[in-house]
Structure formats: C-alpha cells, structure tokens
Design brief:
mainly alpha, AhpD-like, 0% strand
Length: 176
C-alpha cells in the first residue's frame, strides 16, 4: 500500500514504514472502507506528497462516488472538527445551545453507504482531535451495527497516515 511514499519515509521512522506496509492486512474493513478512509485521512494531513500517493493508490480501487465521499468527509470534518471542538472545549456551555448554522448536507447524502462515510468522518475527526465529533460518529456507527474492530481499524489507518505525514515532514533537507 502506498509503495511510492514508503521510499520517502526516513530511517528514523522505520516503524511508521512497517505500519504503513501492514495497513491492509487482516483488516475487518471492506475495500471501500479501507481505501476511502485512507484517502480521507491523507487529505486531512494536508501533506501534498501523501495526498498524491493516496489518490494514485485508490484510483483503481474506489468508485468515483467513493472518492468524492472521501474528499467530502475530509472537507466537512475540517469545518466541523474546528467548530465542535470549540463548543466542546469552551468553558461557556451556552455555545452548545446555539445553532451551528453550518451547512452539512453531505453528511445526510454522501453518495455512498452512510456507514462508510461515517467511518471516514470518524477517522478524520481522530486526526483533527475533535472528541465531540468522534463520539457522534462512533455512536452512529455502533447504532448501525458496526463493530468495535471495524472502528478501531479505521482509527488505526488515521493514526498511521497521520504519522506518515509527520515522518515525511521530518525529513532532513538535502544540503544546498
């Protein structure tokens, strides 16, 4: 998985390279869940090399609808995770009573299975550190019968993809 990016991971991040190699093995996720989560998480890292590698990786594995949904999950969670993390962390609980007035239509109609989109959103929320969103998406997934193993696999993808982005950014620049 993501063979082109593995060569760019520096030696100090050998464990990250190994974890990246093992992402697809023994996963409880469907192919759409696995690769959609991978793409949404790569986008959430904002690392252009990782995003390009993820886009190439999923191009033949996901439908255009699933690719669009992964992109949409990364985008909508970029907004929601900031807003709801603020609501959650602010000492003044009145913010939680005020309507958000943010458009989130894609959550109701993502163009793919609702549970797959929720899984992408949960994984991106883990990267972005929004506990309120993590709880919300995890509840929807559990209510739809998604197992803890599937949820953990999605979060494992988020953790590894985020670590890959950090490892890539920690490379020592070539001497001029």
């Amino acid at each position: 998985m993501l063979a082109s990016i593995k060569d760019l991971i520096p030696d100090h991040a050998r464990d990250i390279k190994l974890n990246l190699s093992g992402l697809g093995r023994q996963s409880a996720l469907t192919e759409q869940q696995l690769f959609g989560t991978l793409l949404a998480c790569a986008i959430a890292t904002r690392n252009p090399d990782l995003i390009a590698a993820a886009e190439a990786e999923v191009a033949e594995k996901l439908s255009p609808e699933a690719i669009n949904a992964a992109r949409a999950a990364a985008s909508i969670m970029a907004m929601n995770n900031i807003y709801y993390r603020f609501v959650h962390l602010a000492s003044n609980k009145e913010y939680g009573k005020i309507p958000a007035r943010l458009r989130m239509n894609v959550i109701g109609n993502p163009g793919i299975e609702k549970t797959d989109f929720e899984l992408y959103s949960l994984a991106v929320s883990a990267i972005n550190g929004c506990g309120l969103c993590i709880d919300s998406h995890e509840k929807v997934l559990v209510d739809h019968g998604i197992s803890a193993v599937v949820i953990q696999d999605a979060v494992r993808i988020a953790a590894v993809i985020n670590a890959v982005a950090v490892a890539l950014e920690s490379r020592v620049p070539a001497a001029a």
